[in-house]
Amino acid sequence: MKDLVAPHLSALAPYEPGKPESELKRELGVDRVVKLASNENPYGPSPRVLAAIKDGPMELHRYPDPRGFDLRRALAAHHGVSADELCLGNGSNELIDLICRVFASPGEHVVYGQPSFACYSIGAVAQQLERGVVPLRDDLHWNVDDLLAAVTPATKLLFLANPNNPTGAYVPGAELRRLLRSLPNEVIAVIDEAYVEYPDAPDFESAERMRDEHEATILLRTFSKAYGLAALRVGYAIAPSTMIGALNRLRPPFNVGTLGQLAAIEALADPAHLEQSVQATRRDRRKLADALGELRLTVAPSQANFVLVDVQRSGRAVFEALLGKGVIVRAMPAPLQQWLRVTVGRPEENARFIEALQEVLEETTGE
User: Fold this and answer.
1) How far apart are alpha carbons 136 and 145 in whole angstroms?
2) Cα 282–Cα 194–Cα 97 angle in degrees, nearest 5
3) Which of 20, 74, 110, 367 could form a disulfide with 157 if both were Cys (CB 3.0 to 4.6 A apart)?
4) What is the C-alpha to C-alpha distance for residues 307 and 206, in angstroms, rounded to an integer?
C-alpha cells in the first residue's frame, strides 16, 4: 500500500512510554516487578480522592462538565488567579500540542532544549514548525544565554521544562526571571512545571511568581506527578485570559473526564498528603543518589522525582538486563545513551533497584 502518512510525519518517532508492569509480567513471566520508569508518585493519591471516587454520585452515562467549572474554580482559589486564566487538558501533553497548533503556523519557529521532554519536538514537528534545538551544557544543564541566542525574528514559542525532564536540572529563579524579561514580546514562553512540587534548592522559584515579567507566558502544571493522579490525565495551563480563550477554540470538548475533575478537586483539598509524599521523595532522592555514588556512578543533580545516572556502558543494555530482574527504569536516547532515568520510589523499591543494578554491573564488567 502507498504510504499515506503526511511527509513531514514520516520520520517522526512516536513517544515511548515506560513499560507497564503487566507487560513485563506477560513477556518474561516475572512475578515481582518494581516500576521506576515513568516518574509517578509511588505513594498514590490522597485518601480523599479514593473516597470521593468510591462514594461520590457518578453519572457515568453523562458527559463530563466541558468547561470544568468546579475544578477551575478550585484551581483559581489555589493559585490566586481568575478562572478564565485557566485551561484544562488531558494531561499537560495535550496542552503542549494545543499550544503549538493555536499559536504557531507552519514555517514559524520554536525553541526548546535538548535533551528535554519529547512532546515539545513532537508538537513542533506535527505543526511543521522550524525548530531551534538548544543543546544543554554537558547535555545536562540549562543555560539562559543559549536559549536567548536561539530566538530569531520568526520565533513564536519557547518551551522550558523547569525542573527538566529527563535531566532533573533547573533554571535558578534569578536566571528564569532574566529569561522572561529578555524575550521579545511576541515570543510565548511556555514554562512546564510538571515537577514543581519537588525542588528544595534555595534558589529555585516557580514562574508563577513571574507572570508580570513577560505577558505572553503560559505556565503548565499537572496532577500526574506529585498529586498521584497519572491514570486520570489532568493537566492545566495558567495564562492571560485572551490566550486561554484562544486555546479553548481548539480544545476538544469533554477532554477531562468526570473522575479526573473530581479527583483533582479532592487532591487540591489535601495539602498535607501532598507535603508528606513530596518530603518522602526528597529524602529518598538523596538516599538513592548516595547509593548510586557508592557504586562509583555519576548522578546528575536532580530537583525532580527521579535521578539520572551514568552507568558507564550502554544504557539500553543495562535497561534490558534490569528488565530480566523485574526492574523497570528508563533508557535514554542520544546524547544520553549511557544514562538511565530512575524514578524515586518507595524505600524498598529503591533498594531492590540498587541490588539489581549492582548485579547487572558485576555481570557486564569487562564485556
Assistant:
1) 11
2) 160
3) 110
4) 20
Could you tell me the three cell numbers for 147? Answer: 536559549
Residue ranges and CATH numbers for the domains of the chain are 7-44+272-364 (3.90.1150.10), 47-270 (3.40.640.10)
As to burial, measured by CB atoms within 10 angstroms (0-12 exposed, 13-18 middle, 19+ buried), residue 93 is: buried
The torsion angle over the Cα atoms of residues 138, 356, 40 and 252, rounded to 10 degrees, is 80
**What tens digit of pLDDT does each residue of 27-67 get?**
666 667 899 999 999 999 999 999 988 887 678 888 998 99
| Residue 71, C-alpha cell as written in the block | 475544578
Residues of the chain with pLDDT under 70: 1-4, 9-31, 57, 366-367
Nearest-angstrom CA–CA distance, 73 and 53: 20
Question: Are the beta carbons of 352 and 331 closer than 8 angstroms?
Answer: no
pLDDT tens-digit readout, 286-337 = 999 999 999 999 999 999 999 999 999 999 999 999 999 999 999 999 999 9
Residue that has been written with the C-alpha cell 496542552 in this structure:
95
Is residue 71 within 8 Å of 261, Cβ to Cβ? yes
